[in-house]
TrEMBL record:
Source taxon at top rank: Bacteria
InterPro entries documented for this protein: DUF234, Restrct_endonuc-II-like
Protein name in UniProt: Phage related ATPase
Coiled-coil boundaries: none
Ranges for domain DUF234: 89-189
SUPFAM superfamilies noted in UniProt: Restriction endonuclease-like
Length: 246
């Protein structure tokens, strides 16, 4: 249970503020300004330095939310916890340290994790796909020289407009020729059915890409898909988890 302290002390002399930052973004990704408010730290100066050091150590990653076709003026950058071990630590070990110390029987993890393990694995799977994007592109026949930009795409809901809807896309690749490749990453125990089509179609509508853009739809799954989804031909490519290693 001391792996966290060991890992951080190898990188940073004083770990208290680094731990606070990583613990906060393990709950959800957020902007530097939001992180500063949550931790009661000024968003400039010291906080910026901590974030920079964490990014250099590859514990976090920062993604911008600008639309690839230049329609979004949103300049927010989202800080994402990028280290799988830290994600696991703050989800299941850190909150249950005292219980783990007392435990002498098997099966504790199943009791602690419960149903939350499904959402946790879904989150980790998205990051795993992102880290292996080059293999995904290779499997769908995309030449990396055609790629202009890539990453998770998000647009925050505007507080001034109650009818506005936010949007989050697992991975969006912008390619030459005004082509967008939308990649949906799904990790679930049950076979994925046709309901995923409406989910992806809604994201495309909210993306509001110009008509001159074409959008490729890719599904990456760690499990099985239903026959109806396979017959729908909605996705240009459906890849299994093996594609992430090839």
């Amino acid at each position: 249970m001391n792996e966290f302290e060991t890992i951080f002390k190898e990188q940073f002399k004083v770990i208290k503020n680094y731990e606070r930052i990583v613990k906060q973004i393990s709950q959800k990704s957020m902007s530097k300004e939001e992180l500063g408010r949550q931790l009661n730290m000024v968003s400039g100066g010291g906080l910026s330095s901590y974030i920079y050091n964490l990014e250099q150590a590859d514990f976090i990653k920062i993604f911008k939310s600008n639309a690839p076709f230049g329609l979004s003026r949103e300049k927010t950058r989202k800080i994402v916890l990028w280290d799988e071990w830290l994600q696991f630590y703050f989800h299941y070990i850190e909150p249950n340290k005292r219980m783990i110390e007392l435990n002498t029987e098997s099966g504790l993890f199943e009791k602690v994790a419960g149903q939350s393990i499904n959402s946790y694995l879904g989150l980790v799977f998205e990051k795993f796909c992102m880290k292996n994007l080059s293999n995904i592109l290779k499997n769908i026949g995309v030449d990396i020289h055609q790629v202009i930009d890539y990453g998770p795409f998000f647009r925050q809901k505007k507080r001034t407009n109650p009818h506005d809807e936010g949007i989050q896309i697992d991975i969006l690749v912008s390619k030459k020729g005004q082509i967008l490749t939308l990649i949906e990453c799904k990790f679930q125990s049950n076979p994925i059915g046709i309901s995923v089509i409406s989910e992806v179609q809604r994201k495309i509508q909210l993306l509001k890409a110009p008509k001159s853009y074409s959008i490729e739809r890719i599904l990456i799954t760690a499990g099985e898909i239903t026959t109806n989804l396979k017959k729908s031909d909605y996705f240009h490519h459906i890849l299994g988890i093996a594609s992430l290693f090839e």
